[in-house]
Amino acid sequence: MKLAKSRIDVGLSTNRLEPMLTFWQQEAGIPLDHVLKVRRGQDQHRHDVLGSVLKINHHQDPLPDTAPSGYLELLVAREGEERQLVDPDGSKVRFVTPGTLGIGQIAVRLGVRNLEAHRRFYTQAFGLPERVWPGGVAFEAGESLIALEQDPAAPVDAAFHGKGWRYITFQVFKVDDEHARVLDAGGQEALAPVTLGSTARISMVRDPDGNWIELSQRASIVGSLE
Question: Mind listing the pLDDT tens digit for each residue in 102-153?
């Protein structure tokens, strides 16, 4: 996969906007970049995490009380800081000294039921380089890491609509091509490529456990949605 941005983004959903913004901006020290109006009743508060986007999706309508996804924790490299925090909805973030576990920017920890199936998925569908990770394996998505850890009790087929960590995003040059590549490698289609106005062309795929992955061809990054 040819990445248009050398960092992944990560998305969560919430009904509790003010407590979440207070936590992420003040306690976690993650600055707001801008707010994107996704649709009526949903705004995306986009925060800058060392070049990755933390997408806090605020839904006015109550989110269903669904099971969590396999995305366990966001790890952020920050000089002179070693601490773990939990936001008001229960999502975990951990700050580590740069270089810890090979993290120079961010990493996303993911619990998976079948490590080998996910290894094949990230190798064949995305072509990401592999590296050692305690209790599993990690893949390099530019400067970011996706860390997979074997967990026989990991969630399966997590719903997209629910509280907490829900998806990661790869910014790509041609979403249609990359979407087809993922499907050819055995990935599950969750949303066929669709154009969102003049902003982006996106699709959604799912990993072997059903965790959601967004592929995004963003005009502000690649210059064209064609």
Answer: 999 999 999 999 999 999 999 999 999 999 999 999 999 999 999 999 999 9
For residue 21, CA distances in Å to 24, 71, 81, 123 come to 5, 20, 21, 35
Residue 62 has a CB neighbour count (10 Å cut-off) of: 7
Residue 224 has pLDDT above 90, yes or no: no
The 10 Å Cβ neighbour count of residue 157 is 11
Enumerate residues 6+ apart whose C-beta is below 8 A from 78.
95, 96, 97, 98
**Cα dihedral 59, 93, 221, 161 sign:** negative
Q: Which residues contact 35 (CB under 8 A, 6 or more apart)?
A: 43, 44, 45, 46
Closest of 164, 192, 145, 175 to residue 2, by C-alpha = 175
Class of domain 9-222: alpha beta
Q: Where are the domains of the chain?
A: 9-222
- In this prediction the pTM is 0.96
